[in-house]
Design brief:
Number of domains: 3
Order of helices and strands: EEEEEHEEEEEEEEHEEH
Number of helices: 3
CATH topology of the largest domain: OB fold (Dihydrolipoamide Acetyltransferase, E2P)
Distance between the termini: 129 Å
Number of strands: 15
Strand content: 35-45%
CATH class of the largest domain: Mainly Beta
Strand order of the largest sheet: 1-2-3-5-4
Helix content: 10-25%
Structural class: alpha+beta
CATH superfamily of the largest domain: Nucleic acid-binding proteins
Length: 285
Amino acid sequence: TIVPRADLPGRIASVQPYGAFVDLGGGIQGLLHVSEMGWSRVSDPTAVVQAGDSVTVRVLGVDDDKGKISLGMKQLQSDPWDAVGRSYASGQRLPGTVTRILEFGAFIELQPGIEALAHLSTFPPSGKRDGWKDAVTVGATVAVEILAVDFEKRRIGVAVIEKDSAPALSIEAGARLTGIVERHERYGVFVFLGPGSTGLLPNEETDTAYGTDLKQLFPLGSEIEVVVLEVDPENHRIRLSRKAIREAAEKDDARAYSKQQDKGQESSFGSMADKLREALHPTDK
């Protein structure tokens, strides 16, 4: 009986770029879509099945009105997410294989059936459109660092890193960091601080005169030193400043000058006391 969740024997009738048609007997065929062939991403159905192969499939759905039957094979295999448990955690570094490159990022397989997304925002700015794509190639093995894990939604966020590179610096208020100019907006400059961390340098914190061409002063892809003013993890916001660097330097100069003046006064007072003692108790010569 062909009903949902039934496991049935069949034979591959034909293979198409999008999947394979399975003969279930009695002139009835169902579609085994390429996405249902295995937990790992399948780009070529012929790498999994060939016409004439005997297979066992699970019925995923039956549409009597349209006369369509959806089938699956991966449902008969163990789900890799069930075996993962809690083996992945933020900060963990491991190798992966690039499987797809889309407009918003690259998918990287960490193990068969487990893919992670390296969002385009995790790549350092290059100063050119889609420059981040130069860092990844489909089929290449890359080193990644896990940024976030959501086991409920089966999502893992990663950043592609240089092998043996130093861990990312902790971003907290007061930290002085060097970032890379990512993009310009009318209200400020966005600065890439590290994988998954981009901060906003508001116009009023750039320490420039009104009307300054920030695009020219801070070109895309250039390095810029900033101080972290505020970190809002809940809203994923980081506020930066260059003005704070100058103000801190001015305070340091003022403190140094004050100390120098204090020392000068102490020396002056000492000289006056010596002269007074000499006047009151002249030394016989």
